[in-house]
């Protein structure tokens, strides 16, 4: 089945050792990004997978170019990286909060597209998945997390604040997707 195919592709990538694969998960809170990454780590050989989730940059990361934190986490040839909320998250959040102008947002998106182009020019395969929920479904999911003692930690005041700005997030995410979906690195 699918699991065997994934293991076979992972083995072929490792044996060839000429390129790497980045699987990037973006999307609204509660849409299943973490669950998808966990499932891939369960189904595949995690020894050959780099998994990273990103939140606000550290003080060290703020002293460096914006994309440095992602650059240092890139997988070596023959390996796969699973990235959660990587280089797209911060520009979208900053635009929704109006910390950056529309022109600055477009500039950051152009920087991201150039970064991805450099990676694909070097032989990296980039698979980008945007995971979406409706506003009502997201609310239901967040409430379910709050009711589960093992998942409650996932829901913060910040996430409810973001939920109230759902339409702004979707509009800016749509703009980011349209501007950065390229032949070399399309969004799915």
Runs with pLDDT <50, length 5+? Answer: none
How many beta-strand runs? Answer: 4
Overall average residue pLDDT = 92
| H/E series | HEHEHHEHHEHHH
Instruction: Give me the Rg, rounded.
Output: 17 Å
Structure, explained:
- With about 190 residues, the protein is an alpha/beta fold.
- Helix content is about 50%, strand content about 15%.
- The chain has a 4-stranded parallel sheet, sandwiched between helices.
- The longest helix has 20 residues, at about 100-120.
- It is globular.
- The model has no long low-confidence stretch (mean pLDDT about 90).
SSE map:
Elements: H1 2-16, E1 21-27, H2 33-43, E2 49-53, H3 59-62, H4 68-71, E3 80-84, H5 89-96, H6 102-121, E4 125-131, H7 135-147, H8 157-164, H9 166-180
Parallel strand pairs: 1-3, 1-4, 2-3
Helix pairs in contact: 5-6, 5-9
Which characteristics define this entry?
four-stranded parallel sheet; 9 helices; alpha/beta; 188 residues; globular; 13% strand
